[in-house]
Design brief:
Layout (H helix, E strand, L loop, with lengths): L1 E6 L2 H10 L7 E6 L9 E2 L7 H10 L4 E4 L2 H5 L2 H7 L4 E2 L3 H8 L1 H10 L7 E4 L2 H6 L8 E5 L8 E4 L2 H13 L10 E5 L4 E10 L3 E3 L4 E2 L2 E3 L3 E4 L4 E4 L6 H21 L5 E11 L2 E8 L6 H8 L4 H9 L14 E8 L16 H4 L5 E5 L2 E5 L4 E5 L3 E9 L2 H14 L13 H4 L8
Parallel strand pairs: 1-2, 1-4, 2-3, 4-5
Antiparallel strand pairs: 6-9, 7-8, 7-9, 10-11, 10-16, 12-15, 13-14, 15-18, 16-17, 18-22, 19-22, 20-21
This protein binds adenosine monophosphate.
Length: 433
Amino acid sequence: MRVLVVGGGGREHALCWKLAQSPLLTRLWCAPGNPGIAQVAATVDIAPEDINRLVDFAVAQRVDLTVVGPEVPLTLGLADALAARGLAVFGPTRAAAELEGSKVFAKRFLERHGIPSAPFAVVADAAAAREAMGRFGWPVVLKADGLAAGKGVLIAQDEAEYEDAVRALFEERRFGASADQVVIEGFLHGEEVSFMALSDGERLLPLATSKDYKRIGDGDTGPNTGGMGCHSPSGLVTAGAAERIAETILRPVIAGLAAEGRPFTGILYAGLMLTEDGPRVLEFNARFGDPEAQVLLLRLEDDLLPVLAAGAAGRFEVPELRFRSEAAACVVLASPGYPGKPRQGEPIRGLGRAGSPPGVEIFHAGTALVDAESDTELVSAGGRVLSVCALGADLAAALERAYAAVTTIDWPGKVFRRDIGARVLARPWKGGT
Ligand code: AMP
């Protein structure tokens, strides 16, 4: 099979690393890829948003399957454009990806189908937002409708912070057109977990559980980021609870989308709050989480390629996916300044040594190769730069290996959290897969 992966971050490196192990694979391209991906795939200099050029490339190269990593090309209709040319794609259509692309759509969809979430209102101007103040108690959450790279969610503790948020969203227009509409919703208390499954439009193949760490600072402090680390299993949900989440949330979502004429083929990601009244949906993504993909693909035993190909064809051929019993952990190394303006172009050395112990994999996110005196040199080239991942007999062992690899990477500027998994290890382990 000739396969094209779209994207160029740690998630896409992990996808390419896993697909490259398939005996069914004959050619693997990645657009645009990165220096790490270039070790396992041919990189193609086309941006993920350049739908026309991606489709032309897939047609010209007779690509058998396209796998889309990031959300933006999905919401721009890449899957639709490929399908219109008769090409197979694993990733939702633009209509199905609205689940991620529009929080207003997602909230109303959840309400229509009776799927548990936080109470909410939709407002389209500052006056309506001010009128809704206090309706959901405190704290309260304000969310820009459209994609805002994970930054369009504001939490207000009191009236003053609420007023600041309303001004930022509607008057300063800090999130642009993505905040033409805003969801205001009640704050949910509990532990946050992510839950993902592959869908072929009708059937569901749940992935193992995982937990990600979104804040930049230890102890969940500081601003939200794209994700600073994660592990699988989450250790927070029993196998039974995971099954209930699949039955009461993920399956109804897939069935609801199909019933509304927008069947979802791809990876459905639900961000959930485990509240005292049971799990509730915080958000949906229409693609793999990053860095959750890295740990889940490390643990996946099955060959990924035939699973994605069957999904793209509308019919999974296996009843479930198999995961290693070992745990996997990931520590993200970011540039100084992230999630604000990252300082870039710093040399990174020692990756070969750091990645050599068995079970350790280092996936590239924001790296670049630049010409140095006699050779090329690897430098930082983004906010999140590397995903340092490891398998281990249990979560503690996986974390220990990942952190040992982090210390051997020679990059003085690296910023990372030192407490990935710490809180989960400190409380009773729920088991689960
Ligand atoms: P979202 O992009 O909607 O997942 O929001 C980003 C983050 O904000 C989530 O990962 C949560 O940590 C937090 N958040 C969002 N909605 C709520 C809510 N209703 N209650 C509590 N925290 C929330």
